[in-house]
Amino acid sequence: MATHPKTAEEAAAILARGQVCALPTETVYGLAADATNWAAVGQIFSTKKRPRFNPLIVHVLDAAKAVDVVQLDNCAARLMEAFWPGPLTIVLPSAAHSRVAKNASGGLSTLAVRSPAHPLFRAVLEDWNSPIVAPSANRSGRLSPTTAAHVIEEFGGGVPVLDGGPCEAGVESTIVSLTNSRPTLLRPGAIPAEKIEAALGHPLLAPGGGIEAPGMMTSHYAPTARVRLNAKEAQENEVLLGFGGTPEATLDLSPDGDLSEAAANLFAYLRRLDALGRPIAVAPIPDKGLGRAINDRLRRAAAER
Ligand code: TXA
Ligand code: MG
């Protein structure tokens, strides 16, 4: 059983020893390690059983620290100014002088960077003063954790966790790639694409062909139970995950139809329903704003495995 850190300083000390530690972010809990330590980065992949080709996000304090690891252009600077700190991850060419371990980016010449808003994660970054890799703190392919208890459940208590309470956003960061001819949305997330498009002054491209974020395999975020989408009501043995006051819902993501509240509850409610051991039916969720991120996660949870 791991001994859990009580403070950001204790968590930073675990990272400094080259070990992994789960940290709270405003989106989901991350499994953190020193981005410059090859062995520590390797431990993330083995702890999560994550395929080695699936690159990690590097977390930095701000744009001034981002230049240590990636090459910024005007567009990147504009997005960082508008949305950092916060749940926007930007994929950029790696900086030639970057000290980030090569296994963090799965051998790619690009790197995903983000500046988390959670005060505890920021306190660790300040104390540690070095970039931190942190994928979601779940076993690969499973539901992302939004509380410290979820992380403990995922790894059977073997991973130390800095408890920062429940995550505010509840879905992962939005990922935009600036390595194509035009800014491309790789993953819908906690910042609605519409807001990013408004800041850029033009639409984001949708990823074409292949899987451009190597981690966006179709089946992902998967509970043990079968998941059926756009359900009007539960059938036979199913439990029902509602939205906006769905009649006879087992749990309702937001009785008032608030998409932020629904996103914050999404993974926790899927976990609770999964524990009932019955198939899960999910009511329709509007496909706009944060609803796009929620529907993306639900489609992956429902995909063929
Ligand atoms: O909100 C978040 O982003 C959370 C918290 C912990 O920060 N982190 C997170 O990390 O969701 P993870 O590893 O679960 O998802 C990262 C995604 C993966 O789909 C990965 O393939 C993609 O980012 N990614 C990372 N580096 C990339 C790169 N260089 N090019 C394209 N996609 C990349
Ligand atoms: Mg993940």
From TrEMBL:
EC number(s) recorded for this UniProt protein: 2.7.7.87
Entry's localization field: Cytoplasm
Cellular component, GO annotation: cytoplasm
Major location category of this protein: cytoplasm
Residues that coordinate or bind ATP: R50, N54, H59, T110, S136, S144, R187, Y221
Binding site for L-threonine: T27, R114, A134, S173
Enzyme class at the top of the EC tree: transferase
All copies of domain YrdC-like, residue ranges: 5-191
BP terms from Gene Ontology: regulation of translational fidelity; tRNA processing
Function: Required for the formation of a threonylcarbamoyl group on adenosine at position 37 (t(6)A37) in tRNAs that read codons beginning with adenine.
Family, similarity comment: Belongs to the SUA5 family.
NCBIfam families xrefs: L-threonylcarbamoyladenylate synthase
Protein's recorded name: Threonylcarbamoyl-AMP synthase
